[in-house]
Design a protein that fits this description.
heterodimer; A: 391 residues; alpha+beta; eleven-stranded antiparallel sheet; ten-stranded mixed sheet; 38% strand; globular; B: 537 residues; mainly alpha; two-stranded antiparallel ribbon; 77% helix
Amino acid sequence: MAAVRICGASLFCLILVSTQSVLRGDSFRRKLSVELNPGWPSPLPPVGDLLHVRAVGDNDTLHFLFCSLGAPTLLLVHTNSSSSTLEVDWTQFLTRKVSGSLRVEPESSILQSNAIVFSRLLEYDDVNNTANPTSDFFPPYDLRDFTWARLNLSGASALLCGAAATFANGSLCLKLTVFDSEGRDQILPRLLHSANSSQVEVWLDGVLPQATRSRFLLELQAVGGAYPLSRVEVQRSIDDEFTPSIFKVLQWLPPLNRTYGGSGFLQWKPVSYRQFSPVVEDGTPAQHSPPRPQSCAEESSGLIRAFYAEPETFGLNVSFGLAGEPFYNSTRFFSWTVLLGVGLPPMDSFSPAVLIMMAVGLGTPMILLLLGGVCVCIRKRASASSYEPIN
Amino acid sequence: MADYEERQSLLGDEDKGRQAAEAAGGPGRPLPAICDPGHLLHRIVVLVFMCFLGFGSYFCYDNPAALQTQVIQDLDLNTAKFMQLYAWYSWPNVVLCFFGGFLLDRVFGIRLGTIIFSLFVCVGQVIFATGALVNRFWLMEVGRFVFGIGGESLAVAQNTYAVNWFKGKELNLVFGLQLSMARIGSTVNMNIMGWVYSKVAALVGTPGHTALGASLMIAGVTCLFSLTCALVLGFLDKRAEKILNKEQGKTGEVIKLTDVKDFPFTLWLIFFICVGYYVAIFPFIGLGQVFFIEKFNFSPAEARAVNSIVYIISAPASPVLGFMVDRTGKNVIWVMVAVITTLAAHMMLAFTFWNPWIAMSLLGVSYSLLACALWPMVAFVVPEHQLGTAYGFMQSIQNLGLALIAMAAGAILDTRGYLFLEVFFCVCICVALIAVVMLYFVDYLKGGDLNMSAADRAKLLKESTSDAEIKRRSSRVSEGELARLAHMSAFGLRNRYLSRLGAQVCTHHLCFDSIQTEIPLFPNSVFKTSHWQCICF
């Protein structure tokens, strides 16, 4: 069962991490190679696309697989060899009925794998403006029934847009970006990423809501091989420099006794934005429900069916908007960003500006105190020694 | 001896009052106590009106902070624009500080001046609310500007009324009560406006700029109430003047801008402390509510309560701390303690998740302590005839700093978040700390006048005043002394600014000599002055 743990970031740790990161500079890079529909002769497959990005490190490889066959899925496979490859049996893969039609060779080199499936979009009518999504649900939109456009590639990022049959206009889009080094995104929420992670932005744009007061939820399913993600941890941080007024980071992690340095994680900040190029005021809090075991991921996603024999799945809902916040109808847009990666989740640290300001601000009075004390001592010594006895 | 003379003059007033009252009521029929301007009961009634005079202005000053989320959401603002509402309040006071006393003394007179400034406060709040009703932000800024013109000068008028109606030890109590009313106004505003808005929004149907405008109009009722008090006070004061044959009260303040070149280095350091400190308090309270909601997961009601704790604490803490500072002296040390405590409080809020009630309580105590210790120092550093200019200048650059930093704080919050904002406030306090440290050493090296203990200061005063008395008794009134006599005493001036900034006045003072002089100024007019020379210790 999922457990939520609140963990505070210690100030000392934060200072240590920030000084280290400032001094260390750029550390670890991967070599990225992108291929779309590997092994399928052109033209494109009849339905669905498969994007494969290989991120090769010194002695390991991360395989990122993004597939729009059924519900959009991002699969991450971590192997301990820098020459592992992907094998796809397309005929069986396209039937979506055979497990093992997608393999990473050699199979013995697989350390672990995790996947995230964007399975359903739920809408409810928030009549009383309480943001309590327990009832008044409209029929859910199943993302496996969406009509997905072709994957639009640019560099190491891919854009996938699709619409349900009932959408008059508007679409749901997912943008995947795979990173080769440490860095920070430019647009809010400016998530920090490492070379071991990738980022998916989800946004719903222009869709006509079924009620003027409706709000949305996005259902996610996390699939794990050896280490399924079963609990969400809330990390409180004092640093909100990059996402102003958000002091929490949420991480979806394997159970405590099965965590190790190289296990997978999902990380996000509990905020969603109501505009495409957001500023701080466009932020709306996002909440999540506790992860619960589920059983049908392999039915909705072709990639899960193809890769996993018996996947362990946990699902949760991310809801957008709190009581009192504007409804979806105000801008007809919401966006949310999530990181999927392996290893230690990236942690924000103080920027150099903050460290310098505090050092100068606190140091100058101390120096002045010292100098002043020295001056006073000298003065006292001088006046004492200038005493001349009368005799 | 001082007590005897005090009693003498108070009795003298009362005797005169009784005679005048008898004359007014007709032969053999004295006025009832409550209608008799000389009687204590009547003066208590006047005190009540005097206290509520400033209530509306203090209540409405922090309306934006109490309704921060609603203002930002309903009018679709960012934080930088929101803080403009505070900046526009401070801008007119950069210049008006110098002219407030002049306007009240020479141009309008205290009665008409009070009514005019109350009108400005009222009209300003109404324009502010109208701007929200019609969803025009520029109109709201205009409203705050007009409100600012009236707000600060009204405090000057309130103090002048107090000095005019009450003398000696009563004055402490009066200033204390006025201060408490001011703080009560701020606190009530912080805790009530959210509730008012939710009720209005339910009435109107949806939250939005209409509900916001209506709530602000309701807040404007307090300004109307203060205007009524101003009218009543004007009437009572005019009546008392007729019955008692008093002069209309004067602030007695003369500003000479050329005095600025004579200001000593220690005074400039005091200015730095003042600016560096207050810019880290008021803009922080303005932005505090959302900070507590987001970082510490407080509910909006709780966040408003903890935001108002600074004001709640300063009401009882100020007299206690004022008494302590007056008893012990050593003002520079107290200022240093206050600044360091505030720095600690801000760092707690920035870098830890400790319960913010602790940090905000510390902030309240140190804010009161600084006001009690800092403002009297000006009177120790500057000769009496320049005190008006010095205080006016201090208020002016304080308002300038507040206006600029309010805008900067909003902009910083929008781009870099709360941690950076708190670090920025810490840096401002560090500037004040640097100034305090320098002040301590400069003062120490110059002989330590500012940091004297209370006993030493009293001794010094006794020696200097006994010299002055001998000199005065043996010579006629000279030109220089004319200039000194025409101004308010150090006691009065200190009290005026202390109470305005949230401190309690000294409760012990040595008063000597009542000087009554008639000085012919122009043909056919006479300048009458009668006042105490009082020193705080």
